[in-house]
Fold this sequence. Notes:
Strands 1-2-3-4 form a 4-stranded antiparallel beta sheet. It has one domain (about 1-145). Strand 3 (about 110-120) and strand 4 (about 125) form a beta hairpin. By secondary structure, it is of the alpha+beta class. It has helices at about 1-25, 55-75, 80-100, 125-145; strands at about 30-35, 35-45, 110-120, 125. It has 4 helices and 4 strands. The chain is globular.
Amino acid sequence: MLVGVAALVYAFDRVSKYVVTQNLELGQTVDFIGKVLQLHYVENSGAAFSLGSGTTWLFAIIASAVAIFIVIFARRIRSRSWAVLFGLLLGGTLGNLTDRLTRGDSFGNGHVVDFLQLIYFPAIFNIADSAIVFAMLIFIILTIRGVGLDGVRAKRVAEPLTTDPS
């Protein structure tokens, strides 16, 4: 499940970025769903909201470490929900890492292709970013619900009532 989700996210991310870079000029905006969702092609050397621009190499190292961690950690996962979460995270991480490694003037110094712009949302993002955000939402839900990597919900133990003898 993890590998399948990661492969789908990665493929969708790569194809969408290819279509955007082949059909839009850098900086061009096109209405996709009216003004609610527009395609706005930009290149981002930083992280979310362009934070850390100019340190692409650092983000490439971090993304590589995350991907390696997920691959090593994957054997522990016995839950479909956790597998989907880590598949989304791996596919998104590899999608943006591929840009950082291949879309620059030197290896590891590339720019991520961003192109999705939602009305009233201050950032432009891509499919990989969306997958990472959805993974974090699933993480929050699973954590709040107490679902472990094995898919079993942790049982809450009520503390016994004590009476004060005095």
